[in-house]
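Project standup — Tuesday

K.O.: blocked on the structure for the chain from last sprint. Re-posting the sequence here as requested.
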Amino acid sequence: MGQNRQLTGKMMYQQDEIYGERLLISIHADQTELKDNIRAARVLLRCFDDMFIIINEHLFTIGHKNPEYLMIVI
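H.V.: unblocked you, prediction finished:
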């Protein structure tokens, strides 16, 4: 993966080696699903030039939804 980037607070992301800043991956993402999530995100980015995706950190909070992605279309 590419270089690290801090967006807000203490959350750190790595840029994808193929899509760079268009696909940011949390260094705390769920490792058990990471390859599948990256593959799916790359498919979406290949199809939509105006989309950016962030693969979120994995949360361990009970009762809190844990979305895998944040997609932004400009």
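K.O.: great, moving the ticket to review. Strands lie at 4-6, 12-16, 20-26, 51-55, 69-73. The chain has a mean pLDDT of 84.
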